[in-house]
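haha ok so turns out i had the wrong file open the whole time. this is the CORRECT one, sorry everyone. sequence first:
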Amino acid sequence: MQAWAAEAGAAHGAEPFYATPEFWVAVAFIVFVGLTARTIFRVATVALDERAEGIRNQIDEAQRLAEEAQELLASYERKQRDAEREAEAMVDNARREADRLAEHAARELERSLKRREQLAVDRIAQAEKSAIEDVRAQAVEVAMQATRIVLAEHVSGSKADALIDAAIKDIPEKLH
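then structure:
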């Protein structure tokens, strides 16, 4: 440095290099740039740190939202599976109930048909019994008519009275 100072001093005269205004302007410029750079570096560092913190917060928020969305998706998928299972259970229950009702209706129809068949058999038996009674009554009526005619033509007097008395005695036995 002394060599540079000696050289600079020889060129300008005997003044040392640090006594020149150019040196002090250069020193002031370097200090100014140093202080300004330090301030700018601090401001830039703070701004970059704030921006990095903001980005980090956004990333954290995005991760939190993604986790919430994932949990919500899983919750909805569980709910959907539960709803599907419940719907399947409802369908199965409805099918079982329909089968049970169909079986019940078939049993009721069978019972109803048996009752109607029994009623028809009972009515036929009643009609048959009524027809037999009508035929018997008609036969009795015809027999009575024939007996009157025969008695009127062939039997007379005391013999007719004895036959009438015997017939009257036999009526209760023959009606039952």
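Residues 21-154 form the longest helix (134 residues).
again sry for the mixup
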